[in-house]
Amino acid sequence: MSKPTDLLQGTLDLLILKIVALEPAHGWAIAHRVRQMSRDVLQMGQGALCPALHKLEQNGLNRSQRAVSNNNRRAKYYMLTKAGQKALAEESAAWDGPSAAITTVITAV
Predict the structure, then answer these.
(1) Number of folded domains in the chain?
(2) 102: left (phi over 0), alpha (psi -120 to 50) or beta
(3) How high is the mean pLDDT of the chain?
(4) CATH code for position 48
(5) Of 2, 67, 81, 103, which is most buried by a Cβ count within 10 Å?
């Protein structure tokens, strides 16, 4: 049987783009926000998150800037680029169909 984290692998970029679209955030804050918004169902490990953030930045979908975090530590904050906004809209639209279909199948009587 699959675990909730298996689903995360296929949606990691979409989740990161969505969180960063809400406000600039550093890696730990992105992982925390996803966990919080999913009510502790989805959890991102640093081993998956850091390479994904780097890949998104290399692809021009986000950009980063060093700043001081709330706890006075230097952190790398990620922001969405215009290309990232477009990708987020496309990925969200692409997710809607399969998501609705899965919900229909698993809630069928």
Answers:
(1) 1
(2) alpha
(3) 88
(4) 1.10.10.10
(5) 81
Block residue for tokens 């979908």: 61
Q: Return the DSSP state at 81.
A: -
Strands across the sheet containing 25-26: 25-26, 74-80, 62-68
| pLDDT tens digit at each of 109 positions of the chain | 555 555 555 689 999 999 999 999 999 999 999 999 999 988 888 888 999 999 999 999 999 999 887 777 888 999 999 999 999 999 999 888 888 898 999 998 6
Q: What is the pTM of this model?
A: 0.84
Range of the domain at 71: 4-106
Integer-rounded Cα Rg, in Å, for the chain is: 15
| DSSP letter for each residue of 5-73 | HHHHHHHHHHHHHHHHHHS-EEHHHHHHHHHHHTTTS----HHHHHHHHHHHHHTTSEEEEEEE-TTS-
Give the Cβ contact number of residue 17 at 10 Å: 22
* Two structure tokens written together for 99: 């998501």
